[in-house]
Amino acid sequence: MNIVTVRDYRALSGMAAGIIASQVNRKPNCVLGLATGSTPIGTYENLVDMFREGVVDFSKVTTFNLDEYCGLDEENPQSYHYFMREHLFGHVNVPEDGVHIPNGMAADVEKECGEYDEAIKRAGGIDLQLLGIGHNGHIGFNEPDDVFHDNTGMVRLTPSTIEANKRFFDRVEDVPKTAVSMGIGTIMAAREVLVLAGPDKAEIVEKLREESCSPRVPASILRYHPRCTLLFATAK
Ligand code: F6R
Question: Does the predicted model carry a pTM greater than 0.85?
Answer without folding.
Answer: yes
